[in-house]
Amino acid sequence: MSKVIDNYTAVKADVSAACAAASRDVDQVQLLTVSKTIPVPVMMELYEYGIREFAENREPELAMKKAAMPDDIVWHFIGPVQSNKIRKVVKLADVIHSIESLAQLERFERIAGEEKRRLKVLLEVNVSGEKSKGGMTPSKLPEIALAASKCVNLDFAGLMTMAPFEADDAELEKIFSTLRILKEDCENAIGRKLPLLSMGMSGDFPQAIACGSTVVRVGSKIFEGVPK
Ligand SMILES: *Cc1c(COP(=O)(O)O)cnc(C)c1O
Questions:
Q1: Mean per-residue pLDDT for 108-135?
Q2: Cβ(6)–Cβ(220) under 8 Å?
Q3: How far apart are CA 13 and CA 4, in angstroms?
Q4: Helix ranges restricted to H, the chain
Q5: What is the 8-class DSSP label of residue 218?
Q6: Which of 161, 177, 160 has its CA nearest to residue 169?
Q7: Per-residue pLDDT for 133 more than 90?
Q8: In this structure, are residues 199 and 216 in contact, taking their beta carbons and an 8 Å threshold?
Q9: Would the N or C end of the chain have less CB density within 10 A of its end CB?
Q10: Whose CA is nearest to atom 7 of ligand 1?
């Protein structure tokens, strides 16, 4: 087996172990491959292996890869989106994890309508309050979640967060549990369930799974040691 498939199956086993430790069903947690900076031939190895969902954080790279790869891929966008890039991202991506403001949500809703696209969206919350992290403050969430629930071109599916790289276990638990509670608050406010809680990366996905994550976004652990 190739290095990347070895890595992928090892991460998948770690996800399963984390689910077992948390008494959760493995089917409740999606391992989402973050393929930013990874060349198409390496991604195609994963595609041949059966992987059909990839996450990118830059529009030009997503455009290039979408054009180069098969049509049956679900593309996730996980990076910040500048206003002048929204139309391009709407045309390219299927799921957006990184909606950060009401103005941005409204632009996505309008442009998705103009482009006759229906997108799944998650609201990114800056739970840690770290300045370098994207996302809205938790205090803005109720208003934006209510607006998201009323969108007709966007399917409001859940929340996303990133924890600080240097966070210890206690801090990770606090951040990830807070996002889970914020999702429950949103569900109560809008009167329906939100399926997606996108949290956990290479360095912290077991902790995120313990706190209820349904999507872990993993890049470096899948691609470490893989020649580019
Ligand atoms: C790069 C990135 C990831 C994956 O991070 P790794 O540490 O490489 O697993 C997850 N989420 C976002 C938003 C990212 O930009």
A1: 95
A2: no
A3: 14
A4: 3-21, 40-49, 59-68, 86-92, 102-114, 141-149, 169-190, 205-210, 220-223
A5: E
A6: 177
A7: no
A8: yes
A9: C
A10: 202
Report whether 207 contacts 200 (CB < 8 A): yes
Query: Amino acid identity, residue 15?
Result: V
Query: Is the Cα dihedral 88, 92, 98, 100 positive or negative?
Result: positive
In a 13 Å sphere around the CA of 86, the CA atoms on its Cβ side amount to: 21
Question: Which ligand 1 atom is the nearest neighbour of the CA of 202?
Answer: 9
DSSP code per residue over 146-205: HHHHT-SSEEEEEEE----TT--HHHHHHHHHHHHHHHHHHHHHHTS---EEE---TTTH
Reply yes or no on whether the pLDDT at 1 is more than 80.
Answer: no
Q: How many CB atoms lie within 10 A of CB 184?
A: 14
User: Is pLDDT at 182 greater than 90 in this prediction?
Assistant: yes
Determine the pLDDT at residue 227: 85
Give the position of tokens 């799944």.
120
- For 34, residues 6+ apart whose C-beta sits below 8 A from its C-beta are 54, 55, 56, 57, 78, 201, 217, 218, 219, 222
Tell me the three state secondary structure of residue 19: helix
Measured from CB, residues less than 6 Å from any atom of ligand 1 are 34, 36, 57, 78, 162, 201-203, 217-221
